[in-house]
Design a protein that fits this description.
InterPro entries: SAM-dependent_MTases_sf. The chain is an alpha/beta fold. It has 10 helices and 7 strands.
Amino acid sequence: MAADEQTPTPTPTNPVPTTMATSTSTSNTTAGNTSTSNSNSNTLSQAKYADLTFNSPLSAPHADALIAHLALSPSPSAGTTTPTSVVDLGCGWGELLLRAAESVAAASSTSSSSSHSGEAPGAAVTFTGVDTDAALLDRGRLLAAQRLGSNSGGDSSNASASPSVTFVDAPASSWTQPAHRAICIGSSHALGGTRPALQHLARIVAPYSSSSSLSSSSATSAPPPSASPSPSTSSYARVLFGEMFWQVSPPPEATRALFGDDEVPGSLADLVAACRDEGWTVLHVSVADQAEWDDFESRHRSGQRRWLLEHPGSEGADELRRQLDQREHDYLAHYRGILGFAFLILAR
């Protein structure tokens, strides 16, 4: 999920900016004070997402189920091969992308005996995360190195079938490189809204076959001509799309608190209809449950709450505390149990 690709009205997936001031304009500010202030700001920036596993209301079991629906492993009974490219637009630190890569690595490991018996290994799967938050991208690269080893970072020279993970600092809207699978969770705002996001995703995903491959050129290059996969070996391109919706008709207070004059989501039925209107087949729908929402909202504040306990007198602490209290109030009073979050597996 994109952290701050744009800065819309504060929402559950695009929270109130809470960067601490580090002004050096006062006459009695020393170099030492400036360094301390910048250090505090950097620490707070890390604290903002420190307690989150996913930057959306999503549990680990739910995430694993969604990854399974992306069908990243080959299906011999259906005559398909493994998709070779996955992109996450607005990835943040890419936790879902990393888990998808880990699932492919695990499947590759368990099937290694087939390779030893003479069957050629499948092509390596490349995973690419795209975002504009440098700190979150660095977090993703560190996690990739820790969990996937030396093949993370996009080493295409590795001849093995183990997955590679690359994080790219670029706006989601600039990404035109085709992929067999795409992920876009809570990042439609970075692509102009729900329908523009669905249209953009349609331009970059492509079916695959045992003989087709996609270019691995730069993020902003135009996609190559589409291959025409054999019907017997082709597989539909799939997208995991995450978006907000209203579970019930919202009171005016909820709409104002969350969206102001920005685009307001519709119902789940409206969201599914929009996907179909844009040419997508909806393969699977699931929604965040109340426990996932409560955990997400609490974790989105808890890292900064702990920071405030450790730095109670820091510059901007009172304003940050006020913002966190307001967000907590808005959630509990206005949109808890009213705002929903859907995860859709789309194909074309």
